[in-house]
Amino acid sequence: MSLRPIPVPPVPEATARVARAVFRKGCLAMRVRDELGPLFCDEQFASAFPHRGGPALSPGQLAMVSVLQFAEGLTDRQAADAVRSRIDVKYCLGLELDDPGFNFSVLSEFRDRLIVHGLEEQVLDIMLERLSGLGLLRAGGRQRTDATHVLAAVRAVNRMEFVGETMRAALEALAATVPDWLADIAGQHPVWAKRYGARCDSYRMPKGDNAREEWARTVGEDGFALLEAAHAPTAPRWLREIPAVQVLRTAWVQQYHRDSEGVRWREGKDLPPGRIRILSPYDVQARYSVKRGAGWVGYKVHFSKVCEPDAPHVITNVATTDATVQDTEMTDQIHQSLQKRELLPAEHLVHCGYTSASLLVQARDDYHVNLLGPLRQGRFKVPAGASVRRSRLCMGSGLARHERNEAPVGRGDLQVASNHRSFDVPQVCHRLPDQVASLGQRGGTVAGGAAAAVPDPRRRRGVRHPFVAVLLVAASAVVGSAQSFAAIGQWAANAPQHALARLGRPRRRGTRRTGRAECRDNPPGHRHGLPRRPGRSDRSRSRRLGLAGHRRQGRSRLAARDHARRPYPCRDDGRWPDRQPAEGSRQDE
Questions:
Q1: Rg (CA), the chain
Q2: Are 521 and 510 in contact (CB under 8 A)?
């Protein structure tokens, strides 16, 4: 079909009168036409059509219908019916009221034509260019990217169904292409008509493991026999170029062994990786993947859109890959696409699948984009020769023990132990206390900084630490992924001494380790300072403590009550004054 460009028609008077009478406040399709005008014209898609042939439908109108179809989540049949019956769609396309529309199959043919000629992003680019020209879209601001799965239009089958259906698809393609040649080959194998005449289904397969293995071996022998006949010197050479025959050959290499002992299944590690394994003879690019506990066969699509509160939430980039491509492989490609469109954000919000140590630095240095997202647990590579702070973190229960020193590293010197597994963390994680402390520093001291201007809402009685230090410690804990008050307190209780001193909190005095906790010489009855007694669990200890942290029975309760009446004052530097424990209190050794 050839393209004969026609100008975009204006909205007919009758269509406009009826549409405005029905939709007095307007609707999406009408606002698109009124605010953006005609978005697409036929000349923009001229490269996808030949110069000869019958006249084709207007690609500009088909592109606009595709946009409305995606916005409302319609199928091809529903979108074609909307063009015939809906007044607002006719208004947007500039059609007369009696326009008959088109068949729904035209939409899928139009999309296939765009993909074949590499114009799949043409519609999105035209829309983004128009929105940018109107000032509705600009670089900077904040965008977010996320991925979702796309199901392939194929049936999910097991391995036995797959090899049987692949063999049947090859026979169907050969029957339509060279029926006489296939009749001669099928005459040598009369059981093929019965075995592969109907669709392969697990209900029709033999029962029992031995019978199923024998059936799979028989299908493998039939497939190798058909491939040998197609590659024989007497067969036409173009037979082996038929896509179904090529899929059969690739699938048999992936699923079967063939040697002097015969044909047998590939098992376990002999199978190819999922990234190259074919799962359906009708869609050779579909792959199996699992994300957030959900598995699917198909593809993965990555959407980037604007999330500014004062700007329209417009999709700025779309990238489609097979299901096995990791999200980290797409971060740089997404930034390249946004840079090409001149729509790079200032802040890019992503989930942990798109982040890594190198990607955080690369986004900042190469694209001037602040990539925001949690770091996933895994192994990160450190550039050779980089000078970083070596640290050992133990994150099993929120404890963090740092052992810092400056040293050039080659690969993997930054180690983190998490649940008896080790992985590397980026250098930026160890500089968080320094960066947060800079908010409250002026001239090398904590006092007098920006955080010091925040008024202290606490009562003077019972104050133990400077308010600036409390703010900075809380900020560091939140940046370090603390999501609750308990996590902030745990982070502060187990942070290294040098980090606390950097943040302005005084060093803990008399610290000692028992098990996995750090115990201090706290006042009697202080719940968080009670050391662990040997041979007793936390659960048994918690039963003996009241809500205020003191014991329910005995002399310790009286001592805790005496301490509650006489709280310790806090010195100016935030340290506990030297004071002996209350008489009669029992401290664990």
A1: 35
A2: yes
pLDDT of residue 434: 53
Tokens coding 13:
């008077």
Locate all alpha helices (DSSP H) within 203-340, ordered by sequence: 209-230, 243-255, 328-340
Alpha helices in 189-316 (DSSP H): 192-195, 209-230, 243-255
Tally Cβ neighbours within 10 Å of residue 580: 5
Distance CA 281, CA 271 (A): 17
Reduced to 3 states (helix: H, G, I; strand: E, B; else coil), residue 370 is strand
What is the Cα–Cα distance from 61 to 68, expressed in whole angstroms?
Answer: 11
Distance, CA of 574 to CA of 463 (rounded, Å):
9
For residue 367, what are its two tokens? 């694209």
What is the arithmetic mean of pLDDT over 320-342?
A: 92
Q: What is the dihedral of CA 117, 123, 128, 129, to 10 degrees?
A: 70
Q: Which two tokens stand for residue 543?
A: 């039963």
Sign of the CA dihedral with 291 first, then 296, 299, and 303 last = negative
pLDDT digits (tens, 9 = 90+) for 421-459: 333 333 334 444 555 555 544 434 444 466 677 777 777
Same domain, yes or no, for 252 and 163? Answer: yes
Q: Side-chain half-sphere of 382: how many Cα atoms within 13 Å?
A: 21
**pTM beyond cutoff 0.90:** no
Residues 132 and 164 in one domain: no
The mean pLDDT value for 12-21 works out to: 93
Among 210, 241, 270, where does a domain finish?
A: 270
Outline where DSSP puts E strands in 343-485. 347-349, 370-372, 386-389, 392-394, 406-409, 415-418, 421-423
| Same domain assignment for residues 20 and 119 | yes
pLDDT at 248 over 90: yes
Report percent pLDDT > 90 for the chain.
Answer: 33
Query: Which ranges in 73-200 belong to alpha helices (H)?
Result: 76-85, 87-93, 105-116, 122-133, 159-177, 179-188, 192-195
Using DSSP, state whether 417 is helix, strand or coil: strand
Q: Which domain holds residue 25?
A: 13-136
